[in-house]
Each structure stands twice: as structure tokens, then as C-alpha cells.
Amino acid sequence: xxxxxxxxxxxxxxxxxxxxxxxxxxxxxxxxxxxxxxxxxxxxxxxxxxxxxxxxxxxxxxxxxxxxxxxxxxxxxxxxxxxxxxxxxxxxxxxxxxxxxxxxxxxx
Length: 108
Ligand SMILES: Nc1ncnc2c1ncn2[C@@H]1O[C@H](COP(=O)(O)OP(=O)(O)OP(=O)(O)O)[C@@H](O)[C@H]1O
Ligand SMILES: [Mg+2]
Prior knowledge:
binds adenosine-5'-triphosphate; binds magnesium ion; 9% strand
């Protein structure tokens, strides 16, 4: 399994290039999962016809238990598996919290 992290300052095209890369690699026949780590939870929207999905943080705010994969993962364009870490309630905490919760979830 190969893992790539794409990061940079705001608005430089991270989500656009990441979703294009995911679609391109998936179209080559590879199984691809894109995990967004932005509190806006919008990195996968290009793969989902502009639709949002339930982020890990959003799920954990509204449920007493950790999500099953099917609760927070949606298949998008070219079959790319889309997940968004999400973020804390606006103005409370930072993006690191969403990423941390999601990392704990993935380790389980
Ligand atoms: N190569 C490009 N040329 C022109 N416009 C672009 C290009 N890549 C992205 N854009 C546009 O720039 C804007 C920001 O792109 P995008 O949302 O991908 O950036 P981002 O780095 O993910 O932003 P954020 O930090 O807010 O998540 C969008 O309107 C997008 O359509
Ligand atoms: Mg983005």
C-alpha cells in the first residue's frame, strides 16, 4: 500500500489536485482511498458531484460509539473511497483534533 500526503497553504488547489490524482490512479485500476483532513470536509466533493458526506468528527458528535467504515465512507467517481476527518465545532479546538480522532479510529 502506498500513502501520499498533500498539504499546503489555503486555497492553492490541494483538494482539486488530490481528487484529480485519486480519480486518475483509480482509473488505472488501483484501489484508492482519499481521506480529507480539512474541517470544511470538502476535499472529496469533486469526486462526489459536489455532495458532502458525514465526517468522522460529525459522526462522533452525534453518536455514542465509533463509526463503522460504512457510516463515514462513500464511494465516488471511479470508485474512489472517500472519507473526511472533519473538524471541531467552529471556533472551538483546531483541525488537529479532527485528524487525531480519525487516526485513533483508523488504528482500531
Ligand atoms: N490549477 C488551477 N488553476 C486555476 N484554478 C484552480 C486550480 N486548482 C484549483 N483551482 C481553483 O482554486 C480554488 C481553490 O482550490 P482548492 O479548493 O482545490 O484549494 P485548497 O488548497 O484545497 O483550498 P483550502 O485550503 O481552502 O482547502 C477553487 O476554486 C479551484 O477551482
Ligand atoms: Mg481543500
